[in-house]
Write the structure tokens for this entry.
Amino acid sequence: MNRRHFQLGVALAGFAFATLAAAAAPPEPPGYRLDNYQSPTPDTFNGEPALSVDAAKATWADPKTLFIDVLPHPPRPEGLPEGTVWHEKPHVGIARSIWLPEVGRGALAPETEAYFRRSLDEITGGDKGAILVFYCKRACWMSWNAAKRAASMGYSRVRWYSDGIEGWREAGLPTETIAPRP
């Protein structure tokens, strides 16, 4: 194989890989994702590209921006004998994040939806124009769902950080242990 054929082969392989990668991202659905939350997600939210690591970092630099972690809160294991000491595993999130567990499910119990509405109202001071960045894990629909739900509640500056805590950590950006918002 001569050099020209090799270069053509590399170019075609790169094109095929890029095409497959692009095909892996599903389109934005009209509603919420109801199951299989840890699966390929769209590249966009409300037609806008998801925040890249660099864009999330730049957005995070503004202390008025609210980063919201929506990962579930693991419950105390069932069936522990009475008197068993159980310590929760620390939850690490993006520094200055607010943890609102369970609000990224596709269907919310009325109590969880009320918690989400109340929490957003309190953390934004009622400002529907506050910048809200939702995240959880990489390729996780829960943050996409929560962002969609916040937008449906009238919040106009909702962004989605699709690389989640993994992308943030891989970039060496600030993290801290956070507790769920009551």
The chain is about 35% helix and 15% strand. The longest strand covers residues 131-135. Confidence is low (pLDDT under 50) at residues 3-22.
